[in-house]
Structures are given as C-alpha cells and as structure tokens.
Amino acid sequence: MEGCHLALVGATGIVGQEVLQLLDERDFPLRDLTLLGSHHSEGTRVEFRGRRSVVGLLNKGAFAGVNIAIFVASTEASKDYASHAVQAGAVVIDASGAFYRDAGVPLCMPELNLAVLRQHRGIVALPHSLTAQVALALGPLHAVAPLKRVVVSTYQAVSGLGRQAVQEFDQQLRDLLNFRPPQVEELPHQIAFNCLPQCGDFLDNGYTEEEMAFIHEMRRLLAVADLPITTTAVRVPLAYGHSAAVTVETRRALEVHEARAILAEAPGIVVEDDPKRLHYPYVTRVNGQDEVFVGRIRADLSVAHGLHLWIVGDNLRRGAALSAVQIAEHLCDSATG
Questions:
Q1: 27 and 155 fall within a common domain
Q2: Model confidence, pTM
Q3: Directed axis angle between helix 209-222 and helix 129-144, to 10°?
Q4: Are 81 and 321 in contact (CB under 8 A)?
C-alpha cells in the first residue's frame, strides 16, 4: 500500500487547519484524505495541496477505508464516533481530551514516550496543549534528576477555547476601544484587557477541569502515578500561545547550568535564557514554531534542589497539531513498511 487514507475530524476548526498545514509542510504520505465535520461545516470547501476538498458530515459510516483518523473536534464528537472509526479499521488519534483518563488508551507525547503506541487498541490520546509543552521540558530533566514536586501557573491563550472564543475576544477589543460595552458569550467574563483564573469548569475540590487534567496527564506522561503536582490555570488576553511558570523540586541537586545543558540537547526544545540581553521566550516570537521554548532557568531560593522555568509554546501547532501528525507519520510508516 502506498501512503495512508487519513480522515480529519474537525477539519474547519483552528487546530484542524494547523493539522492540514503540517500534513502539507511535512509531505505526509497521503493516499486519500477525508475531511469531516458537523452539520455547520458540512459542504465547506477547504484548500489543500492545490485543490479544494469538500468537508463531509461526521457520521457512523464515514470511516470506510480509513487507516488513520485524527480527531480535533469536541470531546462529544470523539466519544460518539471514535469507536465507529476503530470498528471500521482505523487507528484514532484523539486531541479532544475525551480519553485522557482511560487507562486502556495510551497517552502519547512523541518526543517522550513514543513506545506506548505499541499498547494501543485502536485509540491513541494526546495530552492537552499546555500539558504537552510543559511535559516536553520536564521529561528530560526528570530522566536525569527525578522530580519530587511540581508547581505550575499557566497563562493560556483564548484560542484554547476554539475559533468562536477568538472571534469574541477580537470583538471585545474592538468594542472597548470604541467605548462600547463588550459582549460575553463564549467565556465566563470579559477577557479583553483582563485575566480570568478559570480554564474549564470548576470541580468540587476547587480546581478546574483543565487543572486536574494537567495533573493527571503529567503523571501519566512522566510515569509517576503519585507525583505531587499542583497548578493554577489562567486565561489571558492573547489570541494564541500558552505560557507557564514552572517550579520543580528534584530528588537530587540539579544545577542551573546542568539543567540548561540537558534542555539544550532535548528534542523539541529551544533554550532562550540570557537575561542580561533580555533574551527569553515570549508568545509573539514563538507562535508558528514547532518547538517549545524555555528560559528564565534559575534556582529556587526557597527550597533545596529547586528550579524555576518559564515555558512558552504555540498551543495550536506545537500543543496539538504537530503531535497528531507525528503520531500519524509513525503509524503510517508502520502500516506501509
């Protein structure tokens, strides 16, 4: 078989568009491409590799002949239709978060634990975008100096909520700059010129869904089921790009220069850490990049064996789309090799 028949669920969404761009840029070996979406996007024409493809309706019978199905739509779509894709013979790569707690579904970050793909039973889950970029930086450090505790404060862009939230953010900016009251529908409160300490719905323990997902996913990716982790997730007035202030305690001393050297050699990581020249990562520089950028690496003066890091990445491209395409490449190679 030459190439793979790939289906993309959520083809017109902002992550779906990133997936299509990466498939093209990386010359993914496509034998056929099926684009799928909801009733709202059915019939939409999408430009890909010089021709226009029509988005079909996502339904139980849409996966005939498909080898790999990438789901970048809602959790509901994944829960309702992923099993039908598997029954049709496809391997599902899910970026919705629908299966991150399912012990029978491997959670994969390609640079960290590609070997877990051998355990899949038809579905492979991707971590949330913020988890992906933080894990990419912490994984290499943990391999050298096992982590004892992790504290994370996140600064997450509006695009993590999808295209409609970005459009609402844009309109709020326009309204406020023209002295009009902003309209709020997609977000819990005004996000323009504001920060909201809420990413996801609140749970009974006072954490949000995304905060608990981060904790659970990080433990799975690092393979430490009881690793102490705590996080506060904040939505910030940026359209694209997630950032995180991360504090770690390690079980042995890890000097700052050693941490920099480890990260400089780690796949998918770029170290930008020269404060004297004001050189550090920030979102307007890293958006559109495949790597995760790390800077402000310094000792935690309050505890022994502690480090602070500032971690920034493109939440759509690096956080979701690239991992999905990397896994698809590996699965396609395995199927056609």
A1: no
A2: 0.95
A3: 30
A4: no
